């Protein structure tokens, strides 16, 4: 493999490491904390829709790309199922160990982690508290498929299949808004959701969804060359801003805890799920660039919004921070793996 900027993988790593590190340094030493929130809102409401419209000019629209949302939901369900199995195994293992040791075990409904002495007997409860289970499952669902996923697929696969990535991202957003929020509220100790109208309206008002509609129309228009170039330059400026934002967010993370659970979660989400679903796509005739794109998006690390959900709903914030931080590093090692296994 030739090591030059003409190589897509080298180009991607130069972009990822360079802009994320720039954002990390700016966030650590120069830019005030409040700026991150403003930049995030600007990119969500303005930058992301603009880049969607711009890249839609280069993409190919076909009915076959409907496999993207199907793949997204399949990956979501497979990952959540595997995560739930692991949690159940962890709880069962702790119960067996407590019985084998002859300990009196008191398990509360919340499975809170408390070790203490009761009438001369050690009372042992589970490491898998409800908030920890919630964070573990939520990290399986909420992948960084836009701010990180879009730069990856645009560099490695190209804009021709961008609509596939957009459909995948929107499908994951729908799953998170409807099921992810419900899951966070169920396992958390704070706010409870009320009804389904709020999550559904959030999906409908997603700017990228409407940008897709606008982009599909603008795609049919013949524009001057300099306008197209302006669109593309502006879109890549937004993509680089995504990466700077990731660096800013990483600079705000404080500590890494629950490393064992965090690594297990990432192994399921970023390795096992893409491998299982990506292999399965072959049996449905999905190969080449589309399959590589879908596998890359399935293998994205948990998004930073998982830490916000953890704070809002009273989940395990330490575990959420750990999965986000470690996942942002692990992605550098998994991308070459997917290129090797599912590359063109």
- Taking pLDDT < 50 over at least 5 consecutive residues as the criterion, the unreliable ranges are 103-124
What is the count of distinct domains? 1
Order of helices and strands: HHHEEHHHHHHHHHH
Please tell me the overall pLDDT: 81
Q: Biggest β-sheet: count, sense, barrel? A: 2 strands, antiparallel
Structural class: mainly alpha
Tally of separate helices: 13
CATH class categorisation: Mainly Alpha
Here the CATH topology equals Na+/H+ antiporter like fold
Shape-level CATH architecture: Up-down Bundle
Output the radius of gyration.
21 Å
The level of helicity is over 70%
Alpha-carbon distance between the termini?
Answer: 14 Å
According to DSSP, the number of beta strands is: 2
Task: Note the main attributes of this structure.
13 helices, 344 residues, mainly alpha, two-stranded antiparallel sheet
Describe this structure in words.
The chain has helices spanning 8-30, 34-56, 67-100, 130-141, 149-156, 162-187, 197-204, 207-218, 225-252, 259-282, 288-298, 305-313, 317-342, and strands at residues 116-118, 121-123. The chain is mainly alpha-helical and 344 residues long. It has a single domain (8-93, 129-342), classed as Na+/H+ antiporter like fold (Up-down Bundle), CATH 1.20.1530.20. A hairpin with a 2-residue loop joins strand 1 and strand 2. Helix 6 (162-187) runs parallel beside helix 11 (288-298). The longest helix is centred in the first third of the chain and has 34 residues, at 67-100.
């Amino acid at each position: 493999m030739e090591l030059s900027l003409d190589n897509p993988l080298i180009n991607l790593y130069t972009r990822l490491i360079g802009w994320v590190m720039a954002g990390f340094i700016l966030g650590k030493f120069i830019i005030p904390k409040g700026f991150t929130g403003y930049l995030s809102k600007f990119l969500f409401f303005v930058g992301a829709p603009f880049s969607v419209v711009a890249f839609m000019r280069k993409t190919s629209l076909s009915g076959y790309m409907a496999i993207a949302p199907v793949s997204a939901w399949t990956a979501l369900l497979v990952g959540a199922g595997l995560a739930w199995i692991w949690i159940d195994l962890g709880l069962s293992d702790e119960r067996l160990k407590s019985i084998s040791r002859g300990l009196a075990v008191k398990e509360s409904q919340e499975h809170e982690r408390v070790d203490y002495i009761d009438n001369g007997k050690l009372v042992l409860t589970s490491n898998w508290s409800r908030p920890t289970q919630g964070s573990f499952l939520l990290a399986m669902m909420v992948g960084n498929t836009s701010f990180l996923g879009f730069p990856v697929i645009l560099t490695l696969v190209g804009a021709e299949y961008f609509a596939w990535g957009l459909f995948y991202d929107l499908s994951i957003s729908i799953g998170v808004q409807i099921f992810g929020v419900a899951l966070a509220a169920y396992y958390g100790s704070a706010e409870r959701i009320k009804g389904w109208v709020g999550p559904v309206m959030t999906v409908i008002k997603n700017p990228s969804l409407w940008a897709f509609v606008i982009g599909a129309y603008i795609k049919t228009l013949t524009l001057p060359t300099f306008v197209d170039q302006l669109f593309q330059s502006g879109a890549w400026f937004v993509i680089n801003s995504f990466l700077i934002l990731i660096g800013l967010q990483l600079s705000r993370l404080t500590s890494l805890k629950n490393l064992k659970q965090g690594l297990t979660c990432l192994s399921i989400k970023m390795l096992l799920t893409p491998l299982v679903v990506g292999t399965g796509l072959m049996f449905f005739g999905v190969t080449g660039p589309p399959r590589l794109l879908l596998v890359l998006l399935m293998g994205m690390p948990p998004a930073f919004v998982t830490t916000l959900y953890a704070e809002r709903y009273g989940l395990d914030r330490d575990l959420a921070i750990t999965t986000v931080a470690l996942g942002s590093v692990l992605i550098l090692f998994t991308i070459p793996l997917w290129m090797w296994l599912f590359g063109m």
